[in-house]
Write a sequence for this structure.
């Protein structure tokens, strides 16, 4: 089986109420495209019916894989687990709430095909269209967080946390085996490593609609993310992102990259 043009990884934690709607919208969009695709739902130890509804939804012939991990490890770990299963030339991760509509992919793929290795959605650029805003306290905390990120880890990126990011296969292979952060600050680590490795990153304005039901706690998770950002700097100083640190990570993710559904072999990313 030839690899698809794009793999879409959807990290999911207790997303039963809206996952089918998200999959339907993605499927409707992708069926109209001239390229092959695959969908990967990666459940982060969901305690509801996330896995069940995803498997039950699958239309005949739709290339869908559902990863049913029982343990909750965090969004960063879950995205990397899904990416390790991906076969596509390009790999998108999209939040399950589709706050950034899947149609934005129309603007991302041409940039990757022109040579950018990472294209990320941004809610803070001049041409971004915020249709439904977050509560004011989340916006306020988000601005503070992004300013800290620019100072401590990722200069030049306005919005590191938008849940719509697309990668070339080369970028995934270079960055993901080095990653250590398992929680919500994994976006910062990815972009920190991209900068460190000299990979090209393009920040793109997107249409964005805040979706209720976020599992992110504005206080608890913000504190954890700040701690993780500090840890990124310390880990870099200690040399944990160097090439010699890759062996264990490569083996761990290769263990996820075996045979896919139906016995089709998947190429190892790392």
């Amino acid at each position: 089986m030839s690899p698809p043009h794009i793999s879409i990884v959807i990290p999911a934690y207790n997303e039963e109420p809206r996952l089918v709607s998200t999959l339907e919208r993605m499927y409707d969009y992708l069926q109209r495209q001239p390229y092959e695709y695959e969908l990967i739902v990666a459940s982060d130890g969901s305690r509801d019916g996330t896995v069940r509804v995803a498997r039950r939804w699958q239309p005949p012939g739709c290339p869908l894989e559902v990863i049913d991990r029982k343990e909750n490890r965090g969004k960063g770990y879950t995205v990397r687990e899904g990416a390790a299963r991906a076969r596509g030339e390009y790999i998108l991760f999209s939040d399950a709430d589709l706050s950034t509509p899947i149609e934005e992919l129309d603007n991302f793929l041409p940039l990757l095909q022109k040579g950018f290795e990472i294209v990320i959605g941004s809610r803070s650029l001049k041409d971004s269209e915020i249709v439904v805003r977050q509560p004011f306290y989340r916006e306020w905390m988000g601005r503070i967080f992004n300013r800290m990120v620019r100072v401590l880890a990722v200069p030049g990126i306005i919005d590191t946390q938008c849940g719509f990011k697309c990668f070339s296969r080369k970028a995934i292979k270079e960055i993901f085996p080095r990653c250590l952060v398992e929680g919500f600050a994994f976006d910062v680590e990815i972009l920190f490593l991209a900068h460190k490795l000299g990979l090209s990153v393009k920040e793109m304005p997107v249409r964005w609609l805040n979706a209720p039901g976020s599992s992110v706690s504005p206080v608890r998770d913000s504190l954890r993310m700040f701690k993780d950002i500090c840890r990124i700097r310390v880990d870099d100083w200690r040399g944990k992102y160097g090439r010699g640190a890759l062996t264990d990570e490569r083996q761990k993710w290769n263990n996820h990259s075996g045979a896919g559904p139906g016995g089709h072999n998947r190429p190892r990313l790392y």
